[in-house]
Structures are given as C-alpha cells and as structure tokens.
C-alpha cells in the first residue's frame, strides 16, 4: 500500500501522484495539474470548509460518530466532573495539567487581572441604554488592544502570556458590565476573594450588600458550563480568531472577531431557540402534535442534531445533570418537564433514530441560564467567556506554527471581464 493518490486528468491524459499524509492531500499539490503551462492549476472549491483542514492542531479532539470530545487528550466528562474551569483553561493554553504550584500561580494571576482600566468603564457607559451585551463585549474586548499596545508583539512568549491572562481574567468583568448596563444598574467591581465563577456571579447580581455570597451549586454549574464550552476545535468563531490572527494582529482584535462570529444565530444562538420552542409547545400533552409537525418537515426540533455529532453530544449529558442541580436551588421550571418528555419521545422515535439526531449542548443550557436569571441576550456572552481559553489556545498555536500563513482563500471568479469604462457624464446623458 502506498500513501498516495494517483490522479488522471482526463483533459490531458496526464497522471500525477499526490502524497497522502494524515488522511489529507495538500491542496497546493493539485496546483501542478494544468491543461497548459500558462493556465492556472487545479484548485478545490469548498464553501464553508466542509472537507478542508485549515491547520494541524493538538488542542481538541472530536469523534462525532462516537460522541467523543477531549481537550488535550482528556475526556470532557472527566474534566467536567473533577476539574475547574481555570484548570481546564491552563490545560488548553499550556497543553498539560498544572502542578499545584503552577495552578496556584495561574489562579493568582487571573484573579489579580480581573479589574479593567477605569477608562473602559467610561467607554462602556457610552453605549445606548438598550445595547446588546454581545455587541458591548465584542467592542470592549477589541478596545483592550488600545490599552495594551505592547500586545502587538506576538512573537514574544512572555508578552503573549500576559495578554492571555488578561483576557481570561477580564472577559467576565466585561460580560457582567454589559449585563448591568442593559439593566441600568451600576457596574460592580471584581471581588478577588471569590473564585472565578463566584466573582462573575457577584459582578452580575450584587446590589447593596457588602459582600455577595453566591450559592456554591450555582457557581459550580456555571463553572461546568464554562468547561463544556471552552473549546470545540475549528468551529466558526475559532476559525474567525485564527483567520484574523493570521494577519499577526494583536490577540484582543483576534478575539473580538471570534466574539463577532459567535454572535451569529447559526453559531451561538440555538439555546435561545430551544427556549422559544419549549414555550410554544406549552405543555407535555402538546408534544405528540409538535413531533408530528417536525416529522412532516414543518419545523425543527431545536437542540437536536449536530453537524459533527451523530451520537449523543457528550456535553448534553453533563448539562442535563447540571440543570437538575440548578433547579434544586432555584426551583423547577415547567419547561423542564416538556424538555425531558420531548427528549424521551425523540430518542425512541424512528425519525430521529434513523437520522442520528440526539440532544446537543444547547438542549438544556438555555434552561439553566434562564433559571440563573439570565435574559436570552446574555446566553452568547456566557458562551464567549467559556470559549475564551479555547480561542487563545488556538491563537497561540497559530502564531507559533511555522506552517501557517495569512488566511487568504482562492475564489472562482464569476463576474464580467475587460469592460470599457464610460465616464458618468456620458453614461447619464
Ligand atoms: C445542527 C444542524 C444545523 C446540523 O445540520 P446538518 O448537519 O446540516 O444536518 P441536515 O440539515 O443535513 O439534517 C439531516 C437530516 O436530519 C433532519 N434534521 C436535522 N436536524 C433536525 C432537527 N433538529 N429536527 C428535525 N429534523 C432534523 C433534516 O431535516 C435532514 O432530514 P432529511 O434527510 O429527511 O432531509 C441541524 O441538526 C439543526 O438545525 N438542529 C437544530 C438547531 C440546533 O440545535 N443547533 C445547535 C447546534 S449545536
């Protein structure tokens, strides 16, 4: 067996041998396939990158058929069960789990960078009263590049490290302030006595009390949700971070691009759609009618199905458990009964079984966020905070990868050629 592909170009009869490495061929190897020396070489056409690898990566492994997700080789179930979000962030960024000393140092560094420059507060105050928190987050994380101009020196490892720490530390502050802004409430400064997620809850919900005392079960649920969202290999927002980062711009600008991509309803918005769907169904007895509508193609069962997972999304199981823990604190949500029954019916129904449609990460996350009193506009902000270490791990991998170049795809030009320009005075005469 030879690890190569023999290609015969039926236009010319010429044959080419193209190496296969890691189950891929190099698209540039196709460039030698030409009908004549002065003609362009063969290229591939792949809108949406359905079958194109853009990078080698050692950050996250997914096997969608089997429902496996691993960060740096560790199964997501074990990380969600036994680690903390900051430990996972360390793992993603550094490639290995921290020693006790490294962990304490890392937590200390992140904790002591949660404050933002006072000017950031003024800047955020400038947004309209009804500004979408995700728009505020995108703008304010991008604005951090103006506060840390040295972040442009991306080839210096120490410099990269400090920007990574700053961003992981400050995203909850920016996210919480965006939330408070929309509510017309004063921004709450970080409390460095609290853990990462406890402090986030404090910045979100603290009012006149001297010290905010978050329920540990809620803080834990949020921590687990952040872990589950921390990375997902080359998803749309990570691709945006990498694409912008490939220009060698500073990491704040790259992450702002990632926040922008995540803002889109095809990426970060499905859990809100799940809530709307559950509300529309309204009660358990309406489920059979709804399922019939889905099977007739009138609508989709939101929170089911995934481009990559053709099995139970491993994150969905963990989120379901966390939803139960949260409802223990907040009291149950009637929508939960509908969700549970819907899942039960769908997992047994031939339509869904045949198409390998299983609950995805969004099926239960919206219910948790709602129970934690977040309005739907905040759902993607929470996602962005969780995804930040993943974006940064991928950004760091990109800027240290000698094989990477500025991301600049080819196109198939379909427009006119060599038209003759007529001055507007003549055209409009
Ligand atoms: C996630 C999603 C976009 C993946 O889409 P995809 O990989 O392009 O899959 P397809 O749209 O080709 O679906 C394959 C088949 O399953 C059906 N299907 C897919 N998701 C479905 C859903 N949620 N409800 C009902 N039917 C669904 C399609 O109609 C299609 O059926 P057909 O073969 O009879 O035409 C899709 O499953 C979906 O829209 N899910 C609901 C939204 C959601 O939860 N998104 C969050 C993802 S994390």
Automatic annotation (TrEMBL):
PROSITE patterns: CITRATE_SYNTHASE. Keywords: Acyltransferase, Transferase, Tricarboxylic acid cycle. Pathway: Carbohydrate metabolism; tricarboxylic acid cycle; isocitrate from oxaloacetate: step 1/2. The keyword Cell wall biogenesis/degradation does not apply. GO terms for cellular component: cytoplasm. Belongs to the citrate synthase family. This is Citrate synthase.
């Amino acid at each position: 067996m030879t690890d190569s592909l023999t290609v015969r170009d039926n236009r010319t009869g010429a044959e080419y041998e193209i190496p296969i490495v890691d189950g891929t061929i190099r698209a540039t190897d196709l460039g030698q396939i030409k009908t004549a020396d002065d003609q362009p070489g063969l290229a591939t056409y792949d809108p949406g990158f359905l079958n194109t690898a853009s990078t080698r990566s050692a950050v996250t492994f997914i096997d969608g058929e089997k429902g496996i997700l691993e960060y740096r080789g560790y199964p997501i179930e074990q990380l969600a069960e036994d680690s903390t979000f900051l430990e996972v962030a360390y793992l993603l960024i550094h490639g290995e789990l921290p020693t006790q000393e490294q962990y304490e140092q890392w937590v200390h560094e992140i904790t002591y960078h949660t404050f933002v420059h006072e000017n950031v507060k003024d800047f955020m105050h400038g947004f309209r009263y009804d500004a979408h928190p995700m728009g505020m987050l995108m703008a304010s994380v991008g604005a951090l590049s103006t506060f840390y101009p040295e972040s442009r020196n991306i080839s210096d490892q120490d410099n990269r490290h400090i920007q990574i720490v700053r961003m992981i530390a400050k995203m909850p502050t920016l996210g919480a302030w965006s939330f408070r802004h929309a509510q017309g409430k004063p921004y709450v400064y970080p409390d460095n006595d609290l853990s990462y997620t406890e402090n986030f809850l404090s910045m979100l919900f603290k009012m006149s009390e001297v010290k905010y005392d978050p329920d540990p079960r809620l803080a834990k649920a949020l921590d687990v949700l952040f872990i589950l969202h921390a990375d997902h290999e080359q998803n749309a927002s990570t691709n945006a971070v990498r694409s912008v980062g490939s220009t060698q711009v500073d990491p704040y600008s790259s992450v702002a691009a990632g926040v922008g991509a995540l803002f889109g309803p095809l990426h970060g918005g499905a859990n809100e759609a799940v809530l709307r769907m559950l509300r529309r169904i309204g009660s358990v007895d309406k489920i059979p009618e709804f399922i019939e509508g889905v099977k007739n193609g009138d609508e989709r069962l939101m929170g089911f199905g995934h481009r990559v997972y053709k099995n139970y999304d491993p994150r969905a199981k963990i989120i379901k458990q966390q939803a139960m823990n949260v409802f223990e604190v907040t009291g149950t949500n009637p929508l939960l009964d509908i969700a549970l029954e819907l899942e039960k019916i769908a997992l047994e129904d031939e339509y869904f079984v045949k198409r390998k449609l299983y609950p995805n990460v969004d099926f239960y996350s919206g219910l948790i966020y709602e129970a934690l009193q977040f309005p739907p506009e905040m759902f993607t902000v929470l996602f962005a905070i969780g995804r930040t270490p993943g974006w940064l791990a991928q950004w760091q991998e990109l800027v240290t990868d000698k094989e990477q170049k500025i991301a600049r795809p080819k196109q198939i030009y379909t427009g006119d050629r060599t038209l003759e320009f007529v001055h507007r005075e003549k055209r409009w005469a």
